[in-house]
Amino acid sequence: MWVVFWIGFWVFLADQATKYLVVHWMGLNELGRIDVVPPYLNLRMAWNTGINFGLFSQDSDVMRWALIALALLISGAVLWWVHSDPPGRIGMVSAGLLVGGALGNVVDRILYGAVADFLNMSCCGLANPYAFNLADAAIFVGALGLVFFAGSKKAP
To answer: What predicted TM-score, i.e. pTM, was given to this entire model?
Structure first.
């Protein structure tokens, strides 16, 4: 379980540090956009009150707290799952990625009422209209890792 804790801790810390750096220190909240290596990497300020791709996006306190509760519930369920049926090392790393990312986005919802998304990447003539953050990437990779690498190390 220490692997889950440390991976989650560093993901959470990196997520919050990059959000502070980009949103406040670089002033993306005021500027709205910063082209870094167009079109491959751009910073675009987006406050996401919903979940991925703005789904369930409502500017209400009820939805905000419901999404906070859901993220905490899922994080708790993942921790219980990997504790009661320990996966291999990759599964533990995946659980840490998912939990650390989820908690990073929970802190945003508590502090700002929405999740700070700012990374925008496009390639090969395809323009991506969406922005995301490190927590979102960690959640995605962690969930994918749990799908493929979770489960009991015991033989069936």
So the answer is: 0.87
High-pLDDT (> 70) share of the chain, % = 90
Please give the positions annotated as active site.
117, 136
Task: Using the structure block, give the residue that is written with the tokens 């002033």.
Answer: 27
Smallest Cα–Cα separation from 137: which of 156, 113, 120? 120
How is residue 24 written in tokens?
A: 């406040």
The order of strands in the sheet holding 41-48 is 33-37, 41-48, 115-120
What is the rounded radius of gyration, in angstroms, for the C-alpha atoms of the chain? 17
Q: Is 146 exposed, middle or buried (0-12, 13-18, 19+ CB in 10 A)?
A: buried
Collapsed DSSP state (helix, strand, coil) of residue 64: helix
